[in-house]
């Protein structure tokens, strides 16, 4: 059930629920297992990122792209990731916040694909 308001608690729930799903996926699990030693710390970082995006807090500084560009990610992983993210955002966040978060995630995925896969041609 979605939270009645967008706050840090709702964002933390989004992040935790999303990673329970994504980290169990057969295609994504090896990527997470190779780089995440401390899930609590990772959840805090990602929660801070989404808090900055959705609540305009100053808790996250920097860019997630350089960290992800070093990972053994294949282009099809983005669709898997986005599927879990869309589903979880719609479950946890208010409708407006879910729409905003999903739009940001989709834009981020497109930007990452353009940067990581020179042959990638976005659909127009």
How many β-strands, per DSSP?
0
- What integer value in Å does the Rg equal? 14 Å
Strand content: under 5%
Q: What is the overall number of helices?
A: 6
Class based on secondary structure composition and strand pairing = mainly alpha
Average pLDDT taken over every residue:
94
End-to-end separation in angstroms reads 34 Å
Coarse morphology: globular
The low-confidence runs, each spanning 5 or more residues with pLDDT under 50, are none
Helix content: 55-70%
Order of helices and strands, N to C?
A: HHHHHH
What's the short version?
The protein has 124 residues and is mainly alpha-helical.
Summary tags:
globular; 124 residues; mainly alpha; 6 helices
Please provide a written account of the structure.
19% of the residues are buried. This protein is an all-alpha fold and 124 residues long. α1 crosses α3 (39-55), α1 packs across α5 and α5 packs antiparallel against α6. The chain is built from six helices and no strands. It starts with 7 loop residues before the first helix and ends in an 8-residue tail after the last helix. Helix content is 68%, strand content 0%. The model has no long low-confidence stretch (mean pLDDT 94).
């Amino acid at each position: 059930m979605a939270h009645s308001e967008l706050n840090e608690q709702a964002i933390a729930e989004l992040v935790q629920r999303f990673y329970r799903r994504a980290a169990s996926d057969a295609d994504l699990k090896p990527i997470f297992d190779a780089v995440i030693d401390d899930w609590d710390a990772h959840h805090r970082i990602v929660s801070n990122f989404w808090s900055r995006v959705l609540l305009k807090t100053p808790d996250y500084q920097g860019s997630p792209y350089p960290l992800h560009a070093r990972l053994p990610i294949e282009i099809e992983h983005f669709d898997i990731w986005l599927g879990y993210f869309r589903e979880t955002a719609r479950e946890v966040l208010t409708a407006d916040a879910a729409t905003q978060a999903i739009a940001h995630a989709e834009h981020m995925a497109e930007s990452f694909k353009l940067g990581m896969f020179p042959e990638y041609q976005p659909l127009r």
